[in-house]
């Protein structure tokens, strides 16, 4: 590669907020991209993105922008992706690679397969783990992905070259790259992120609907505060995530309900030994994780 | 009351650690007590308590110390209380008031009734909410209870004078005094403290026993960190609390399991409206609580 030549030519970003905008800024800061073109639903947002230098210009018509793009990043909420995939599918060029920034993968892959069909090999799914809320171009930062994890979830149809391109782009953003299958990705995030949110919402809701809810909240303390912090998360966003990852989340919820059934039995039997055993295994795992 | 005369004469404290030691130090700092006598299982701990000025002297024989005490605070782990109640029961004087610092009340009251029988009116149960771990006399601080909550859970047999004495002692420590029945106390703390601990232990245990546990922990992030912070709590202590408050905890656990059953149904039906409704109610309650 020529020293003066950026690694990527044109990058197209759908959604120029935290995820997409930070991707663009990071590649620009690395001198790795010639031009960034942004698409979005709101013209004023695209103007701000351009003023802030997040994108070089706003795209008007995908027919003119997709064919010669090296990477197309779809960084919108997952619910908007099927429509965007359908809009760009007719225009994929021989070297175009499409990737995404969605926090669930099974549903995104299904939408991509439906839109790209025989060209699905050009779609390399990914999940950058860096802030869940999309807060517009002014939230974008070129160092957002520095030391953060990006999970790439390759499809059997992805060849090595395309996979390497996407991994390379995220590496240039400073991220640590992991690989999981889309199915395993969804199971893991159902277990460590989506389920805890559901459980935390459930506890607060169970208290909030009681006639004497105030009494309970009066005596809630620091343990409750930590456990329920994520119950202050955005209801619509978490509705969408839970629905998007419904199958994996139901599996994890059922595993957890079985765990609670066992704990109920142990408690009912006043089986102190087993109770301490369960608590002890949990504590050790939590401490080892917390210190890592 | 004479200006130069402390409000209480002799205070006897069983367990001179964080809870009992701080009670003694606070009353001394308020000039409200003539003499503090400490009992404990470990002579060296009592020596340290005396060197630190937490107690004036170590008691040897309850027969010589209980009859003329104004307040006897039993601030040991709840599991030790039945034995202590039995040891002091024969020596209660006409003006002796016994109280405790246990974090569950139904079991403590039952133990007190068994030991004090016709004298149960002299026992005024209480729960100071200020740190769960008993860390010895060096952890005791005279300002521990400043602005903290103390829940007094009166018995029908307590007369106003005795109740007022206990409330007055805790008020002199700087605490805000609340009153609940023992049953309501146990329900409230099962819901806002014991159940969240159980749920947090359960989630980490459910992951920790999987063959591929490491993979899950690798992608756990800040939401998981908050939710599971209390799963690093002390297994023996929480075993004891869960067993001590078993009846109320089972009730709260069943209420929560019903809530999860509903959420499972809502998720299975992909009922986004209801899901958002539940999340929204929880979020609002959590935010109102968090800002109060």
From TrEMBL, chains A, B:
Keyword Nucleotidyltransferase in record: no
Catalyzed reaction equations: prephenate + NAD(+) = 3-(4-hydroxyphenyl)pyruvate + CO2 + NADH
GO annotation terms (biological process): tyrosine biosynthetic process
Coiled-coil region: 246-273
One example GO MF annotation: NAD+ binding
Superkingdom assignment: Bacteria
Listed Gene3D superfamilies: 6-phosphogluconate dehydrogenase C-terminal like domain (1.10.3660.10), NAD(P)-binding Rossmann-like Domain (3.40.50.720)
UniProt keyword list: Amino-acid biosynthesis, Aromatic amino acid biosynthesis, Coiled coil, NAD, Oxidoreductase, Tyrosine biosynthesis
Protein name: prephenate dehydrogenase
Pathway per the UniProt entry: Amino-acid biosynthesis; L-tyrosine biosynthesis; (4-hydroxyphenyl)pyruvate from prephenate (NAD(+) route): step 1/1
Keyword ATP-binding: no
EC number assigned by the record: 1.3.1.12
Family note: Belongs to the prephenate/arogenate dehydrogenase family.
Domain Prephenate/arogenate dehydrogenase: 9-292
UniProt cross-references to PROSITE patterns, sorted A to Z: PDH_ADH
InterPro entries per record: 6-PGluconate_DH-like_C_sf, NAD(P)-bd_dom_sf, PDH_C, PDH_N, Preph/Arog_dehydrog, Prephen_DH
Pfam families listed in its UniProt record: PDH_C, PDH_N
């Amino acid at each position: 590669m020529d020293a003066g030549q950026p690694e990527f030519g044109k990058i197209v970003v759908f959604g120029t907020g935290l995820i997409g905008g930070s991707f663009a800024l990071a590649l620009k800061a690395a001198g790795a991209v010639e031009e960034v073109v942004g698409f979005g639903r709101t013209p004023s947002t695209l103007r701000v993105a351009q003023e802030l230098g997040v994108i070089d210009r706003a795209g008007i018509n995908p027919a003119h922008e997709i064919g010669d793009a090296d990477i197309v990043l779809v960084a919108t909420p997952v619910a908007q992706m099927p429509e965007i995939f359908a809009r760009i599918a007719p225009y994929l060029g021989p070297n175009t690679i499409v990737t995404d920034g969605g926090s669930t993968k099974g549903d995104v892959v299904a939408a991509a397969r439906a839109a790209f069909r025989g060209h699905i090999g050009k779609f390399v799914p990914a999940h950058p783990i860096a802030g869940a809320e999309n807060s517009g171009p002014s939230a974008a930062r070129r160092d957002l992905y520095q030391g953060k994890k990006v999970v790439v979830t390759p499809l059997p149809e992805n060849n090595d070259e395309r996979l390497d391109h996407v991994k390379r782009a995220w590496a240039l953003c400073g991220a640590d790259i992991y690989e999981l299958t889309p199915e395993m990705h969804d199971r893991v995030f159902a277990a460590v992120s989506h389920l805890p949110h559901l459980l935390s919402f459930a506890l607060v809701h169970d208290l909030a609907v009681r006639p004497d809810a105030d009494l309970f909240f009066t005596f809630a303390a620091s343990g409750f505060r930590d456990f329920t912090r994520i119950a202050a998360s955005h209801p619509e966003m978490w509705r969408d995530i839970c629905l998007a990852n419904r199958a994996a989340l139901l599996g994890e919820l059922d595993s957890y309900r079985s765990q609670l059934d066992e704990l109920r039995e142990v408690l009912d039997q006043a089986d102190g030994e087993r109770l301490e055993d369960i608590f002890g295994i949990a504590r050790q795992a939590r401490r080892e994780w917390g210190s890592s």
